[in-house]
Design brief:
This protein has 387 residues and is of the alpha/beta class. It has helices at 27-41, 71-86, 113-121, 126-134, 136-150, 162-172, 195-207, 223-226, 228-238, 252-260, 276-281, 296-303, 317-323, 334-348, 353-361, 366-386, and strands spanning 14-18, 45-50, 59-63, 93-96, 105-107, 156-159, 179-181, 215-219, 241-245, 267-271, 284-286, 308-311, 328-329. The longest helix is centred in the C-terminal third of the chain and has 21 residues, at 366-386. It starts with 13 loop residues before the first strand and ends with a helix.
């Protein structure tokens, strides 16, 4: 006797995520990767629309790869092509992780471009600020951002920090009631203080670093925006080692900077690597980004028991402040960042710091993140049904 066919799920149950491309170095991509896998594991009908996709399994891939032409028009052309494909997704819920003005839900994982430019201008001379204003890339991105937040289809925005929520309201007048806070989630079973016992001695021995030598860790790609230069200055002032994990197109300039301030022998540019062993071997994380919506590396470090130094331009500033308010400084305050790193290294020597840091991180598990995203999606579905 033949088995009955499984019930066909309605298109309204289908979720189409939009992300232009995946990078092995991107934090936003990693969060989406975790989210897709978790939703698929829960039996959700999930598709990804983008230029490329490294995964598989139960996640359908919809290829959207218009000509890139130049950087100035790359985002605009992708948004147009994506909207043409989305027009055929009748009834599906569309959650975009790109500035695509035809989505039901937008996750602002990359923050607000207008706010990013504000912060960037603080680091630039007048010529640099003029170049930004004339840049076709920035002008087109700002136009796309305005269209997105003015879209009649957009029902909800997911942000990973209160900082980004405030920026959206301030720049676009978007309703705060339709902005939902869903911080990034990490694997709390993997990132844990016990990793210190497993990796610390081996990593330090491999690098020839004595057990008592203070070590600050930097984790992030795009070294200039993430603040590697002020991190180098802070470490030099504190006479600490600085290990940098991540990817950058021009890493040599940071080696030169370390040599200039007398940190060359203590500066180790490790490159792209699994950060877990280095969290275990380091004493503190320093991430002095001038604009960073919500770096997962902050939560990973706290989960491993490390104190973290970051800036007022980082969406994780309030979380870091729960451990110690001295650890949050302005990105341009190099003296203040050095003071913060000294405070972090002092905290690292206290036995109560690791359990306190871990307790803060406990609120940021992957499953909790998925539950919150699902709650937003169900709320939007209910709104569409009423409409």
């Amino acid at each position: 006797m033949p088995h009955p066919a499984p019930p066909v799920q309605p298109e309204a149950d289908r979720i189409v995520f939009v992300r232009q491309q995946f990078s092995q170095f991107g934090g936003a991509e990693l969060i989406l990767d975790r989210l897709l896998a978790a939703l698929a594991a829960r039996g959700k009908r999930v598709a990804l629309l983008g230029r490329s996709w490294h995964g598989g399994g139960d996640i359908e891939f919809i290829r959207c790869d218009p000509p890139k032409i130049t950087r100035a028009f790359r985002e605009t052309l992708f948004a147009r092509a994506a909207c043409r494909l989305i027009a055929h997704e009748k009834g599906a819920l569309v959650q975009a992780h790109e500035r695509v003005p035809c989505c039901d839900i937008f996750r602002a994982g990359d923050g607000v471009h207008a706010a990013y430019l504000e912060q960037k201008q603080r680091t630039q001379a007048s010529v640099g600020r003029l170049t930004n204003r004339l840049s076709l890339f920035h002008r087109n991105t700002l136009t796309l951002e305005r269209k997105l937040f003015a879209s009649s289809r957009l029902q909800a925005v997911i942000v990973n920090s209160e900082m980004v929520a405030d920026d959206i309201v301030r720049h676009f007048g978007f309703s705060r009631a339709r902005i939902h806070l869903v911080p990034n989630g990490i694997d709390l079973a993997r990132f844990r203080p016990e990793a210190r016992n497993e990796h610390r001695a081996a990593v330090r021995a491999k690098l020839g670093v004595p057990a008592a030598r203070p070590v600050a860790l930097f984790v992030g790609s795009g070294f200039e925006r993430k603040g590697l230069r002020p991190a180098i200055h802070a470490a030099a002032t504190c006479d600490a080692e600085l290990w940098a994990i991540g990817h950058d197109r021009r890493p040599a300039s940071f080696v030169t900077e370390a040599e200039r301030v007398g940190l060359r022998k203590q500066f180790r540019l490790i490159g792209a690597a699994d950060p877990l062993p280095y969290y275990a071997a380091a004493d503190a994380l320093i991430l002095p980004s001038f604009y960073d919506p919500f770096p997962s590396t902050v939560i990973e470090a706290l989960a491993c028991g490390l104190p973290v130094v970051t800036t007022t331009g980082c969406g994780a500033r309030d979380i870091v402040g729960q451990l110690d308010l001295r650890l949050v400084r302005d990105a341009l305050d190099r003296e203040g960042l050095a003071e913060a790193l000294r405070a972090a290294l002092d905290l690292a020597a206290k036995p109560e710091t690791a359990p306190r840091a871990r307790a803060i991180a406990e609120a940021f598990g992957i499953e909790r993140m998925v539950d919150r995203v699902l709650a937003v999606q169900e709320r939007v579905r209910a709104m569409r049904a009423r409409a």
